[in-house]
Amino acid sequence: MDLKEKLVSSFFAFEEQVDVNHSVHQIRTDALKEFEHLGFPSRKEEDWKYTSLNKVLKEDYSLFPKKDSSLEYNDIKKYLIHDLDTYRIVLIDGIYSSHLSSTTHDKIDVCLMSSALSKSKFKPLIDNYFNKINKKNSGINALNTAFSREGAFIHIPKNTMADKPIQVINFATGNESALMLQPRNLIIVEENSHVQIIERHQSLTENPVLTNSVTEIFAEKRAMVDYYKIQNDITSVSLIDNTFIEQQQESDCAVHTFSFGGKLTRNNLQFYQKGERINSTLKGITIIENDQHVDHNTLVHHIEPNCESHQDYKGIFDDKAVGVFNGKVLVEKEAQKTNAYQSNNNLLVSDKATINSKPQLEIFADDVKCSHGCTIGQLDEDALFYLKSRGIPEKEARALMMYAFANNVLESVKIPEIKKRINKLIANKLNVNLGFDL
Amino acid sequence: MLKIKNLHASVDGKEILKGINLEIKEGEVHAIMGPNGSGKSTLASVIAGKEEYEQTQGEIFLHDEEISEMEVDERAHKGVFLSFQYPVEIPGISVTNFMKTAINETRKAQGLEEMPAKDMLMKIREKSELLDMDRKFLSRSLNEGFSGGEKKRNEIFQMAMLEPKLAILDETDSGLDIDALKIVANGVNKLKNKDKSVLVITHYQRLLDYIVPDYVHVLLNGKIVKSGGKELALKLEEKGYDWIKEEAKTV
Fold first, then answer.
1. Residue A166: C-alpha distances to residues A153, A226, A303, B75, B219 (Å)
2. What average pLDDT does the segment A249-272 reach?
3. d(CA B103, nearest CA chain A) in Å
4. pLDDT tens track for B146-184
5. Is A26 exposed, middle or buried (0-12, 13-18, 19+ CB in 10 A)?
6. By the number of CB atoms within 10 A of the CB, which of A14, A76, A371, A372 ranks highest?
């Protein structure tokens, strides 16, 4: 039985574990039908031309792990931004860990999706927002919706600053020989409100894990959302991250994606601008080696006038690593005075590394400022000579240049502890002591 | 300090240096002058060890040690410093962090401990004041958006930080106004002592008013065709290079 059949036939077992009378269940049932129809994406689809899921789908994944996994704070501390006071939602093999988490319903709601689905006070929010921007005609998104029951639920009411950032961390313990996880996150930031979120997926053993995650983010009028994705997993795990952001007028949303490890990582990141004077920022640093694969697929949909979007993705690829950047900016006819900028710069450090970069601009308005640029190169020999002439050996000079290349993406990171952590991760990735404090 | 014997070098199969002989003793300042395309910058790059240039014949000794086979960074560790004619812009790395890395790598190669952070700061402060550099400058990305003059000043700042035994200044005067030129020359003169040597490569005489050479050599078509004292530079300034070309032809 292949994975698709296995998933479809396990839906009955899943239904025994959830409230089938909740309005969401009709959405799940419809989504299952959609998944049955569409299945997993194949390379025949334009958006998946450079990324094949075949190998990843071959494993015999457990779908509903047992509840016996326990972790202590010290097991997970190093995967947290632990020097920062935050709320935490920790899931272990897809199951909530209350003693590692720190949730709240005081002023803001930071809790579980399962809890939001079961409590009547959240019903209006669920009815209003759940599955409202999740992309249609996508088998993997439908699959996540069909099995949606757990994940993070974050609700910031009107005129509220979340008093501290929120970390959402999904651990896989390896208690199952192979595990498929499908977290479902819903984030609602109401008018004039502000939140910062850090998301991470981390496997603790070598057993294969496939995570198919869907996150829906709603930023209402003048809301600010600052989101960081840390992808630094081990090489037996794969992640398909689907994040959808709907912005209302004058809202400002930024997503930083740091992809430093994993067997296969696919980031589908889509922004929908539904008001005027919206600002959207998409930034990414990818540093991978061996036969790792990272695919960034972005969409910014400019629907209304006077909005901006800024995309800046940098990648460093060593050994036989493969990178994909497929960035689309779509400017509707009404979206006059749009200012859209997209940039994708890549360094190939080895002869066998690959990058497929495909910037796409589709512009139907006539008074816009849109630019895009894409570079693929090697380290500049003149710059290397310059560094070496100051006594910096070849290896360190190369590392320093790669560090410098990636580092300026961090300028827009607003949380100093994250900036420091990512700087350290970059230095570790490049395997070098940079000779100065980060 | 530096002894070059019958040095030949090519780039892309084209011979640029055609038998250079030069000896610079400790404490001496030598100037190499010559028209465009005579091989001045190539000579500087070959001494520093740029891989793009192939040394086809000859020897380069630094303190009686043959350095032709050494890597660029090893030569730097032995005390060779090249002030670049066109310093490279490197966004994403600050002047300060660059210098910390360079100094600590050099110390590591010399078997020394890393320089304590406090000493490093003191040194950076002292040398930046010597070159009249703004503090903000030090936290900016290396050479990024620097004016021509700022780049050159930054080169001499790096030289002051690294305290090389042999400093090669490749067209350091280009792009400098007279005030900056004086500051840069002052920086070089402060560094100079009886154990340290300077090789000034320049097109024009004006820098030599401030960094006074003991010897002046004229490089023409890959060879040193004439050597003399500092008065030779003045003569070149006045008469140009044509008379030397004529002289070289008759020889």
1. 11, 11, 30, 51, 67
2. 97
3. 8
4. 988 889 999 999 999 999 999 999 999 888 888 889 988
5. exposed
6. A76
Closest among B188, B49, B25 to A387, alpha carbons compared: B49
Q: What is the CB-side half-sphere exposure of residue A309 using CA atoms within 13 A?
A: 32
CATH number where B144 lies: 3.40.50.300
| pTM assigned to the model | 0.86
- Count of Cβ atoms closer than 10 Å to residue B250 Cβ: 5
> Would the ipTM clear 0.85, i.e. be above it?
yes
Contacts of B71 in chain A (CB under 8 A): 388, 393-394
Domain extent, residue B149, equals: 2-250
pLDDT value of position A436: 60
Residue-wise pLDDT for A295-346, tens only, equals 999 999 999 999 999 999 999 999 999 999 999 999 999 999 999 999 999 9
Place of tokens 């849109």: A370
The amino acid present at A18, given as its one-letter code, is V
Tokens of A394: 């070849």
A433–chain B nearest CA distance, Å = 9
Q: Write out the two tokens for B193.
A: 């002592």
| DSSP secondary structure letter of residue B77 | H
What is d(CA B132, CA B135) in angstroms, rounded to the nearest whole number? 9
Q: Which residues of A touch B82 (CB under 8 A)?
A: 389
